[in-house]
Amino acid sequence: MTTNPKIEKPPPAYLAQEPLPEAMFSSAGTVSITRNMVREAEAKARNSQRGRFRYCLHRSVEESVQEMVLAITDHVYFRPHIHPMGKSESYHIMSGALSVFVFDDQGNITERHDLDDDNLENPLVLRFNDPVWHLPVAITDIAVYHEVYKGPFERADDVIFAEWAPDETDTEKCRRYLDDLRNGSAGG
C-alpha cells in the first residue's frame, strides 16, 4: 500500500518584488491573465504615482524570455531607447490604443505603429527583430499591452537611452514631448 505525498498549496500566483512597487512577478508554474486582472492592472496604474503597473509573467530578470502585461496611462513617458543586437521585442495590445514610435539616430520619427484593440484596420501585434530607437505611448487614457523581450534582462546592458530625448526626471519636458509626438510635431 502506498501513501500519497502531502500536496502543498502553491504560493500566490503573483508576488510584489521590491524595489518595483509597480510590478508583480509570477511565482507560479503556469501563468494566466484574466480580463479581471487587466482591469485590476488598469486601476493600479491609475492609482500609481507614475501611472503604470505591470504583471511579470516570468519569475525573474534572469529568465531567457521576459513577458509582461503592462498598463500605462496617457501621461506615462518611457525615454526613447534601443536594445542591443540579438534582443528582440514585441508588443501586443490587449486594451485601449498604443502608438509605438520609431526614430532615427537623430530623434526624427521614421515610423508610427498604432496598435488598437478596437480598430479592425490597425495591428494588434508589433515585433522588432532588429535594434531600433523606439517609444510606446498610450493614446487612450489607459492602454494595456503584452510585451515580450528576449532575456535575461540587465538594465545597464539591455537599454540604451536616447540622449536627444528628455530625461524622465523632467516632467514638464516629458509632457510637452508626449504632446508633440501625439500631434506629429516632435522630432530631432
Q: Give the radius of gyration.
A: 18 Å
Strand order of the largest sheet: 1-2-3-4-11-6-9
What CATH calls the topology is Jelly Rolls
CATH level 1 class label: Mainly Beta
Q: Terminal Cα separation, in Å?
A: 76 Å
Uncertain residue segments: 7-11
Which keywords apply here?
7-stranded mixed sheet; 3-stranded antiparallel sheet; Jelly Rolls; 3 helices; 16% helix; 188 residues; alpha+beta; globular
What is the strand and helix layout of this fold?
Blueprint: E1 14-17, E2 20-26, H1 35-47, E3 52-56, E4 65-73, E5 81-82, E6 89-95, E7 97-103, E8 109-116, E9 125-128, E10 133-138, E11 142-150, H2 155-158, E12 160-161, H3 171-183
Describe the protein:
By secondary structure, the chain is α+β, with helices and mostly antiparallel strands. The chain has a single domain (14-183), classed as Jelly Rolls (Sandwich). The protein has helices at 35-47, 155-158, 171-183; strands spanning 14-17, 20-26, 52-56, 65-73, 81-82, 89-95, 97-103, 109-116, 125-128, 133-138, 142-150, 160-161. It has a seven-stranded mixed β-sheet with strand order 1-2-3-4-11-6-9, covered by helices on one side. Strands 8-7-10 form a three-stranded antiparallel β-sheet, covered by helices on one side. Strand 3 (52-56) and strand 4 (65-73) form a beta hairpin. The longest helix has 13 residues, at 35-47. The radius of gyration is 18 Å and the shape is globular. The N and C termini lie far apart (76 Å).
